[in-house]
Write a structure and sequence with these properties.
single chain; 250 residues; six-stranded mixed sheet; 34% helix; globular
Length: 250
């Protein structure tokens, strides 16, 4: 992990029509690290992810990625720079096969590199190798999330923004998705993780911000986000804790 930031967000304001969703949000993510973005429903987590990814244009503020000002750039240009966004709700093409989903993900790679990229994705999630010809929409929820993550990692991104990857998954299945993210982190990929399993996200993260009504309510090292901080800013969002995940993590 490097001390140099790969992502910097400065005083970001975002509006949807006349409704403001983010108010002066700032953050910095060191290369090779994991940032957990926490908050209750409606706090602004997805808006932040979509704005950094280029899907939503900010009213004011700045986004810098890999040393470049990308504020207001369209999503496809930011993706080419090495930032991949996995949206809430899988982010796959359900009518296409697993193999075709992966082929589309690597379409912008050099032709001679595409097969190797698909093989790397399958290697991370071997179950997908058994489902190559299966329609993605017929996969289980966990397998669909594995496919979404495999699509993201196939292009060897510098940074992955994962928005509620465990949403709707049983704890044991969610854990396999977290393991895929851990593998990506070990490979040097920076991760921004918006997550409902708060303790599990904090166990993986180096740093954390907690959004509340579009503002940064708390920010600091993940190890310092203790139960008092969680109770203050997240309240009942943290209970109950699933027992199927190791060490009582959520």
């Amino acid at each position: 992990m490097s001390d140099e930031p790969i992502l910097e967000v400065e005083t970001l304001d975002v509006c949807y029509g006349t409704s403001q969703a983010l108010f002066g949000v700032s953050l910095s993510v060191a290369a090779g690290s994991v940032l957990a973005v926490l908050g209750t429903n409606g706090a602004g987590k997805s808006t932040l992810a979509r704005t950094v990814s280029g899907l939503v244009r900010p009213v004011s503020g700045r986004v810098r990625f890999a040393g470049r000002d990308v504020t207001g750039l369209p999503a496809h240009r930011i993706r080419k720079l090495g930032l991949t966004y996995i949206p809430e709700g899988r982010g796959i093409f359900p009518g296409l096969s697993v193999n075709d989903n992966l082929r589309m993900a690597v379409a912008q790679e050099r032709r001679q590199d595409r097969l190797a990229a698909i093989d790397r994705a399958i290697e991370r999630f071997p179950i997908l190798g058994q489902r190559r010809t299966q329609r993605a929409g017929s996969l289980s929820g966990g397998e669909q999330q594995m496919l979404a993550l495999a699509r993201a990692l196939a292009v060897s991104p510098k940074l992955v923004i994962a928005d509620e990857m465990s949403l709707g998954l049983a704890p044991l299945i969610a854990e396999s998705v977290f393991e895929g993210l851990e593998d990506a982190r070990r490979a040097g990929i920076t991760i921004v993780l918006s997550e409902q399993f708060v303790h599990r996200a904090l166990a993986m993260a180096d740093s954390c911000i907690i959004l509340t009504r579009g503002h940064v309510g708390w920010a600091g090292p993940a190890a310092e986000a203790g139960q008092e901080v969680i109770d203050r800013y997240l309240g009942e969002a943290e209970t109950p804790t699933p027992t199927a995940v190791t060490n009582g993590l959520r």
